[in-house]
Q: What sequence folds into this?
């Protein structure tokens, strides 16, 4: 297994947010996590790369347990794409992408820039390499942040609602980059209610509620024949356009 998530628990104060979450991902798989707001989806992603350390439970990446000691090496294997892009505003797009290889992977300046141009090409942004983030659309900024993740040549990319800060007309370009990465065999764990990506690219949908996985299965099963009433009710809302 490329990722093993084993019995993760996390509380904030007295509130238990994650109540024992476990699942595995094989190399090349894409999984989509869905579920109501406040259910612990972001907390789970943050626990997976120890942006927020779990209180209990274990994470294995590529067979190796993630601990406080190997955090930096492991974070190079697990990239994170945030909802609000998190690009450095004072750096040009290509420098945003090159900085990870330069600072964390020991690349020289030229090698880091070469890699950054290559990854920008993968996300269709070669022509905007010299622009600053403020000069990019939201969709372009998110594609730049995906290129930044790719430049770490990670084993796994975690995405936390990568399209939810975007205007609807800009989500398509980000979803199509994500579809392409999935079809190229990238392992991706994606918190998103983007049905297009979930149906087309996900091997499995994980449905969470109240800090637990309440249902999981292939998209055909989850979308066409959900077993749980709560999954069905939630999907009804997101598929029929109400605010989810
Ligand atoms: N740093 C924190 N300190 C205290 N409580 C937190 C913290 N981060 C998250 N929480 C709480 O944990 C719960 C789960 O939050 P989380 O962000 O994981 O939910 P989510 O499923 O990602 O929701 P959304 O769909 O709105 O993004 C919420 O009640 C939230 O207020
Ligand atoms: Mg969230």
A:
């Amino acid at each position: 297994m490329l990722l093993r998530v084993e019995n993760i628990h996390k509380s904030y104060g007295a509130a238990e947010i994650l109540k024992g979450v476990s699942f595995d991902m094989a190399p090349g798989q894409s999984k989509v996590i869905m579920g109501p707001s406040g259910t612990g989806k972001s907390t789970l992603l943050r626990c997976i790369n120890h942006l927020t350390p779990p209180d209990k439970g274990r994470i294995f990446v590529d067979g190796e347990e993630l601990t406080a000691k190997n955090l930096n090496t492991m974070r190079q294997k697990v990239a994170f794409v945030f909802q609000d892009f998190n690009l450095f505003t004072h750096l040009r797009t290509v420098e945003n992408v090159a900085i990870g290889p330069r600072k964390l992977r020991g690349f020289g300046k030229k090698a880091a820039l070469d890699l950054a141009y290559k990854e920008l090409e993968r996300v269709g942004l070669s022509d905007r390499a010299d622009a600053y983030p403020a000069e990019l659309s939201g969709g372009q900024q998110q594609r730049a942040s995906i290129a930044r993740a790719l430049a770490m040549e990670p084993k796994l990319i975690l995405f936390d609602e990568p399209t939810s800060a975007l205007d609807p007309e800009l989500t398509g370009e980000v979803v199509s980059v994500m579809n392409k990465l999935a079809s190229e065999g990238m392992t991706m764990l994606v918190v998103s209610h983007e049905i297009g990506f979930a149906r087309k690219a996900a091997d499995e949908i994980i449905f969470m509620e109240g800090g637990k996985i309440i249902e999981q299965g292939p998209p055909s099963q989850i979308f066409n024949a959900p077993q749980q009433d709560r999954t069905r009710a939630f999907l009804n809302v997101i598929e029929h356009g109400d605010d989810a």
The radius of gyration is 18 Å.
